[in-house]
UniProtKB/TrEMBL annotation:
Protein's name according to its UniProt entry: 4-substituted benzoates-glutamate ligase GH3.12-like isoform X3
Record InterPro entries: GH3 (IPR004993)
Superkingdom to which the source organism belongs: Eukaryota
Gene expressing this chain: LOC104757691
Amino acid sequence: MSPNFDCMDLEALTSNAKQIQDDVLKQILTLNANTEYLQRYLHGSSDKELFKKNVPVITYEDVRPYIERVANGEPSNIISGNSITGFFLSSGTSGGKHKTFPMNSIFFENLLLYKALSSPFVSKYMDGAKKEKEMMFGFTRPLSKTPSGLPVSGGVSSFLQSDYFKNQPSELYSSPIDVTLCPDNRQSMYCHLLCGLVQRNEITTSGLQTKNAGTL
């Protein structure tokens, strides 16, 4: 379930953005300084200034070999201090080709955090939004697998099929979870619309959650 926030929480988070960004960078460096990728630049240090001086700005192609090695069964600590539990695909809209990114539970937790932070502002400026009944058009496809057996899918599709989404209170959405997880998107759309029509007097917001799928 998403954590509860109010508008003051978001104001506090944004009033000291530099310190928060520094703290987040410190956490990232502390966690990942000993990975194979960063070890050659930081030699185990989590110092911010050393990071700024030694770690170059790169493109996706620079890290793709490391990602592929993990996908093929090598340990996560090649590129991540946390265990990699799956991969999500980018939309491919910028370069015309999907990019594959490693992920773990932090990815899902951040999605829930984003929703929790935005909800107070929606409730503040939209009458009735505190009821938080959303008509969400969620669509998924079956997950594919890497050679090592890790799941691969679009980021949103991965979230919709995770326990983080399934364990949210059912009253938050007009459609039951079975509609979102239906593999036939035409049937899913029909049911989303039907559920929304039946509950039209209760719905306060709407959204679209798209899907993506592919193999590495």
